[in-house]
Design brief:
CATH architecture of the largest domain: 2-Layer Sandwich
Order of helices and strands: HEEHEEEHEEEEEEHEHEHEEH
Helix content: 25-40%
CATH superfamily of the largest domain: Fructose-1,6-Bisphosphatase, subunit A, domain 1
Number of domains: 2
Largest sheet: 8 strands, mixed
Mean pLDDT: 93
Strand content: 25-35%
CATH topology of the largest domain: Fructose-1,6-Bisphosphatase, Chain A, domain 1
Distance between the termini: 41 Å
Structural class: alpha+beta
Number of strands: 15
Shape: globular
Number of helices: 7
Radius of gyration: 18 Å
Amino acid sequence: MDSKQTTGALNVAQSAVLEAGKIVTQSIDQLDRIKVTQKNRHELVTEIDLLAEQAIIEILEASYPDFNVLGEETGDKGRESDFCWVIDPLDGTHNFLHGHPHCCVAVALRHHAASGPEIILAAVYDALRNELFTARKGGGAQLDGRRIRVSDTSKLTDSLLCTGFPYRDPVDSKPWLKSFATVLPRVQSVHRTGSSILDLAYVACGRYDGFWEFGMREWDIAAGSILVSEAGGLVTDISGDTDLFKSGNLIAGTPRIYEKLSHLIHGSIG
């Protein structure tokens, strides 16, 4: 896919997240009417997640019917293609259901290259703040069409970090608690917002200086990771591997903060 084709695909992805964003904003004042299903003790899916994902898929498939699709709610369509759309229709569902305005819609395009999977573009829309983050491999990252960069923070003591609590697999809880206990006293502050994709978008535009989380899924990682890398940051699997989907454990940040944060976390979990 050349630069012109990637730009065209990004435009389609933008249209998809903007359309899904309308569903989110139209529903925020009717939370008592929304049907909710419990996937497990900690994960919920609403009818808004499903409607938003359906709207996204319809727009993407109208332009790229041969591309595979991996949606958080509808799963993997299983098409044989080197390209796969990765969709999170509502990242921050718990926030949304409580009327807390911190959630987003995300679409990324993954390419299976000879060297392994790579994310080549993404669109992330925070409909409740009307902020659109986009990135294209080699083309930089933008917020509402303006170029964004990671912060210039270099000292951990000056850094504002963000993390996510591992809730899918209890095996992730112990190492995460160790990492949190190690990191917290060495930084300015650590937030937990409930939307990993927006956390990574905020690293990309300098609102956070670093991020880490264990037990993530591909749709939690894909869109945010390219925002960070195209904004001049570093993002890897927690082992340092550039295959971001290897373990679902992620570290991201400005180049200097990433290096120091990675060192702390590796030391804490052995």
